[in-house]
Amino acid sequence: MPATPPQVSTVIADPSSVDAAIESRFSARAFLPRPVARETVTELLRVASRAPSGTNTQPWNVYVLQGERKDELVQKICEAHDAISIDPQLATEYREEYDYYPEKWVSPFIDRRRECGFGLYGVLGIAKGEREKMHVQHQRNFRFFDAPVGLMFTMDRVLGRGSLLDYGMFLQNIMVAARARGLHSCPQAAWNGFARSILPHIGAKDNEMLVCGMSLGYADEAAPVNRFQTTRVAPEEFTHWVE
């Protein structure tokens, strides 16, 4: 028998609530120890799976890390991160499988990157050249910023670059749906270079590549780092009307 298609709700969400979820999203970098129920994570992923994908390929594959297994991964990657700091040559052993960032930075992208970095470190009171403090802050990525839930996203290597576009919409759905439930998130490409250690730890198959990680939980609203907000270019600067 053919599979029964899922029922699609005819209720249209209040646009203001959708806007609020999008506009209140930010990359949280400090979380409370408050746990997130498995049912909540499952519901987030169910909602997010309505993201569009080319010919409905649905390229996403999600690994949810909690408890001891999450702690074990944190320790493993933090140790590797520390080792690279001591001996930068070790970085050659940890390569991203796809280029997330450009090989050569040019304006305006490098300007926005610098603004983001200076702004973040400014809120944290980290001055230029304070390498040890920068290292510690960067390593917060590999501790999931103390979030109770860590997510790892993979996709099959057989798929094309278009599937990464589809994946981005899936990830955005997770983050927006999280806001609707009072949760915050932080998408993280920082994990990508450590894929060779992460993939076997989470039980990924040989045909899978790491797309990115994500921290998920209840944001620590009192943490200074969560007061940092990145700027956005006005629509007038990136919109081109063709009439």
Explain what the structure shows.
This protein has helices at residues 15-23, 38-48, 67-86, 109-124, 131-139, 162-180, 195-202, 235-238, and strands at 61-65, 149-156, 184-188, 208-217. Strands 1-2-4-3 form a four-stranded antiparallel β-sheet, with helices on both faces. The N and C termini lie far apart (50 Å). It has 243 residues and is an alpha+beta fold. Helix 2 (38-48) crosses helix 6 and helix 3 packs antiparallel against helix 7 (195-202). The radius of gyration is 19 Å and the shape is globular. The protein contains eight helices and four strands. The model has no long low-confidence stretch (mean pLDDT 94).
Oligomer: single chain
- Across the major sheet, the strand order is 1-2-4-3
Largest sheet: 4 strands, antiparallel
Indicate the proportion of strand residues. 5-15%
Residue stretches low in confidence (pLDDT < 50, at least 5 long) are none
Radius of gyration: 19 Å
The separation of the N and C termini measures: 50 Å
| Helical residues, percent | 25-40%
Return the average pLDDT rounded to an integer.
94
Structural class given helices, strands, pairing?
alpha+beta
Task: Outline the fold blueprint.
Layout: H1 15-23, H2 38-48, E1 61-65, H3 67-86, H4 109-124, H5 131-139, E2 149-156, H6 162-180, E3 184-188, H7 195-202, E4 208-217, H8 235-238
Antiparallel strand pairs: 1-2, 2-4, 3-4
